[in-house]
Amino acid sequence: MKLLSQCAIVTGGAQGIGLAVASRLMREGTHVLVFGRTETKVVEAAERLNREAEGRARAVPFAGDVCRVDDVERAHECATRELGLPGILVNNAGTVSLSLLMDLPEDELDRLFAVNLKGPFLCLKTFARALIARNQPGAVVNVSSLCQTVVSEGLGHYSASKAALAQLSRAAALELGRHNIRVNVVAPGATHTPQAAAFIEGPTMHRELLARTPLGRAHALADEVARVVMFLCSEDSVWVTGESLDVDGGNHLRGLPNYWEALNPPR
């Protein structure tokens, strides 16, 4: 697979889907800035990725907050200085919580929209401006969720943030196309990651997901999502922009289970 650039930024790159994406990128010879909130985690992830890459590519850790413009700009400067001008951006950092809308605190809504929408916006803006200034092409993949199009009790605020991200991605694809910068979305369903484990591993939720997934498995592996991200970062998708790909084993065909009832059974 021929990737669009030999330098990438992956947010939320220290674990789960982000780590799997970074690993896949480096296997193909692309250097990666691993952008995450916790310094120990990004350092450990970069060390692991460098061991696995065996010299084919290099990972550099960066600890910062995607919701802070200063951190985002410093991350881009670090990537450019250490690895070269980034031509690939994977906005994978995200957060989720479970709450009925009538019980949702205002600050929790603010937090979700900051991480799931503002963060990708700030990263995309900084990334695209640098490419436009140098007349270079680029590829952005925003990792959303199946919840951008289907809803479940307890995840209304999360669904709203991911739907907003999908629309932001379409608008960015429209505006940046003239600069040869493509923007696409990958929308995973249930995926086995450290963040999602509590949601999907309980017996009730596992049974529900299994029943609703046509391909006969309850969840994806992080690397299975990473493979689709790789396609959208490669020259194989050179004529694809403004698109959203569900990576869910067909779960969207039957809809989400009731997360709230599955995780809060009546006593």
From TrEMBL:
Molecular function terms, GO-annotated: oxidoreductase activity, acting on the CH-OH group of donors, NAD or NADP as acceptor; quinone binding
InterPro entries listed in its UniProt record: KR_dom (IPR057326), NAD(P)-bd_dom_sf (IPR036291), Sc_DH/Rdtase_CS (IPR020904), SDR_fam (IPR002347)
SUPFAM superfamilies: NAD(P)-binding Rossmann-fold domains
Chain ranges passing through the membrane: none
Keyword Transcription regulation listed: no
PROSITE patterns the UniProt entry points to: ADH_SHORT (PS00061)
One of the GO biological process terms: fatty acid biosynthetic process
Occurrences of domain Ketoreductase (ranges): 6-189
Alphabetized UniProt keyword annotations: Oxidoreductase
CDD domains per UniProt: SDR_c
Family listed: Belongs to the short-chain dehydrogenases/reductases (SDR) family.
PANTHER family: 3-OXOACYL-[ACYL-CARRIER-PROTEIN] REDUCTASE, SHORT-CHAIN DEHYDROGENASES/REDUCTASES FAMILY MEMBER
Designated name of the protein: 3-oxoacyl-[acyl-carrier protein] reductase
Biological source species: Myxococcus fulvus
